Amino acid sequence: MDISGLITHEGVTHCAWRTSAAEYRDYHDHEWGVPVADDIQLFEKICLEGFQAGMAWITILRKRENFRRAFEGFDYHRVAQYTEEDIQRLMADPGIVRNRAKIVSVINNARRARELVEETGSLAAWMWSFEPAADERPAVVDLAYWTANPTSVASIRLSRALKKRGWTFVGPTTMYALMQAMGMVNDHLDGCICRQHIEELRRQFKRP
């Protein structure tokens, strides 16, 4: 990895973090930055970003299938009904991150998600309303920008709005990571082969 944050392998240039672990390749190439409009998928991403707080994302990525099994596919309708018995079940599950505060947060956020959908009709539509305006983003995304901006004006707004509604583990940095993951921003570095592909997907994407 050089100071640009890019790496070229067999004539193809990618964000350098793609090569730091085998699991990152598929995630970088086919998922990270792809726009998402499904409520359940978005709820999963919110929860996994919350679990990642203070940890390496690769740890969460390697445990993702276990998380999905443990939380019933992150169906927030089901998770919202979890009780103390479910918390104890999850705390005994070695396949996930056994952090009680984060587990309780997922259950709390499922209830808040259910409330939000009952009020507005769509978690996705509400989330996408926080998409940053074009003038809030640089034309070129490079490593220096990434390093200097772990949050954004939009992620701060989103964090504050969620906290006001009672959500937890949704700080501005976590919400910026969510915005990257769900395609609300395109932070594939300038020069990465995926950047233009994601831009095209974002251009074609019908905001909910």
UniProtKB/TrEMBL annotation:
Superkingdom assignment: Bacteria
Keywords associated with the record: Metal-binding, Zinc
Record carries keyword Zinc: yes
Gene Ontology BP terms: base-excision repair
Binding residue positions for Zn(2+): C15, H28, H188, C192
GO molecular function: DNA-3-methyladenine glycosylase activity; metal ion binding
Matches recorded under InterPro entries: Adenine_glyco (IPR005019), DNA-3mA_glycosylase (IPR052891), DNA_glycosylase (IPR011257)
PANTHER family hit by this protein: DNA-3-METHYLADENINE GLYCOSYLASE 1, DNA-3-METHYLADENINE GLYCOSYLASE I
Name this polypeptide is given: DNA-3-methyladenine glycosylase I
